[in-house]
Amino acid sequence: MTKYTHKKKITIAKATAGPTISPAQEEELSGLREDIRSLGRRTTAQAIELGGYLARVKAILPEKALGAWIKAVCKFTPKTGRNYIAVHANLIDYKERLEAAAVAPTVLFVLAYAEQPDVERVISAIETGEQLTVAQVKAMVGVEARRKVATTDEALNVGGIAGLRKAAELKTTQDVAQFHGLMSAVLKRVEKAMEPIAKGRAVKKGMLQEAIVYDCRHAHDLLNSIAAPMKAELVAHVNWRPARLPEGSAWRTVQALLHRMGGVDGWPDRTEFVGWLQAEVIPALRFVVHGEALTSTEEEMEIADTSDDLASQEPAEASDRVQRGEEATLARINSVFNGMIAPASPAGASRKRRSVPSAAAA
């Protein structure tokens, strides 16, 4: 059997390229091969640079020849080569920030296929000192969920209860991934904000609020969408809204806590702030992210979404006002038609008529 040597791989790659390769292009490919081999350890900068080299190779070679060339020269699979190309094509605008943060190529591969807001959120989290794993980054950007949805789009065209359940499953999968990503980022930032305590320094409440308040608000909405049943109102024209999860449950504690953390007015003052983070916030976040047991306390159970009470009162009050107004109007109409309101007296009318000429004369 003929030995499949490295030179033979190169020969096959050149032969597969076909007659469209000009001598100038062959010379360029040779130069690119040397440039790629000169790259040492795959740092962030080198990963982006490698993607640029492979993008130039892709512009020269047909698709099949590109895969053979990547295998022969780069010693990895064509899929990995396309990942490097995607990194260069989609993350070039973030090049300086990614290099400064020393983001690993495996994380770059995930970010290369993510939406721009998700890329920005992940990079910002890394810049604050968070050590994110590839799995956490995937959860934050929802790559796996989107791939699953993309391969099962036909399920959205299935009718009946079975089709509805399938559509709900796809939606829930995506929401859960996004929820977990948000909560992972929030936990990292809270733990980072608590580090000054070990050095006897204060925790900066304002900076932490600014960093996580909107993520907590969005996570609260996602949790409601995933787990909370819809609650009908007493007034028919008022939209249904997510209900509270069962009181006493751990997820009810998380739901209430996220509602509180999603508004700066609900945070404790500076004297109770650190204790609140240690006793309530971090345990609840670790319950969500890592599955650690959450010990409920009476104080935690009393955390309530005050907006729920207000929202339930406002429709009732509005309905009462409308009803009272309608009743008053009907009573007035009935009284007029029944002669209960006497017309203006003739004397009053005559006085009014007498006053008109004097006013006109004046």
UniProtKB/TrEMBL annotation:
Superkingdom of origin: Bacteria
Region named Disordered: 304-325, 341-362
Protein name per the record: DUF3102 domain-containing protein
